[in-house]
Design brief:
Number of strands: 10
Helix content: 10-25%
Largest sheet: 5 strands, antiparallel
Structural class: alpha+beta
Number of helices: 1
Distance between the termini: 142 Å
Low-confidence stretches: 44-65, 74-89
Radius of gyration: 40 Å
Mean pLDDT: 76
């Protein structure tokens, strides 16, 4: 009789332990999964702020991988010398103007104007604009060729000459024996024009000195 009671108590204890274990196991498993999920999230969050992307998982690598040693700075272009980039000064248009024989007002001198658009847009026009008292004429030349009367507009204050893709990258306009205007700073502009649109506009100033 004593043995039966002992066996019955042991059996009841085993059943109770099994029931308790079955209740604790899912809770512990869920807790372990939650801990693993939190750890994974923290690792990924840290990855986004880590300086060297080589430690990040592949899908979170820096956009300029595989060059982790040279991280890009905000606002800095990948290649500042890329053709056509506004930050590259070698691709900006230039315009120069100077007198040859004299810089004194009301004297006679040739005026040389050199325009470098630094761009090719195929068949187009090169256009020069001059201020008041500057007047182009058919004696003037562009790249050694005299101007046609149809290329002189606005009473000589505009010169508009057609060019093509094979034209020179430099346009040198020589205004022959002009009476220089009054002393001061005079603005001259140049640009390319195609289909009514202007490209690579630039300007310069010509300084005329006063008489003594």
């Amino acid at each position: 009789m004593l043995k039966r009671k002992l066996i019955r108590k042991i059996s009841i204890g085993l059943v109770a332990s099994a029931a308790l274990f079955s209740m604790l196991l899912p809770t512990q498993f869920a807790s372990a999964r939650e801990t693993a999920r939190e750890t994974h999230t923290k690792m990924h969050t840290k990855c986004f702020h880590f300086r060297w992307p080589i430690f990040c998982p592949p899908k979170h690598r820096h956009p300029h991988w595989p060059h982790p040693g040279n991280p890009c700075k905000p606002g800095k272009p990948d290649n500042p010398n890329k053709p056509g980039n506004p930050g590259n000064p070698t691709k900006q248009p230039t315009l120069e103007a100077k007198t040859v024989q004299s810089v004194i007002e009301w004297t006679t001198s040739d005026i040389e104007i050199t325009y470098r658009p630094n761009i090719s847009i195929g068949d187009s026009y090169v256009v020069f604009h001059f201020p008041y008292r500057f007047h182009a004429s058919t004696r003037d030349t562009l790249n050694g060729k005299t101007l046609d009367s149809t290329q002189i507009l606005d009473d000589g204050q505009t010169v508009r000459v057609p060019v093509n893709a094979l034209s020179s990258s430099e346009f040198k306009l020589v205004m022959v024996r002009k009476t220089l205007p009054n002393a001061g700073t005079h603005k001259i502009t140049a640009e390319l024009q195609k289909n009514g649109k202007n490209f690579n506009h630039t300007e310069t100033n010509l300084l005329i000195a006063p008489r003594k």
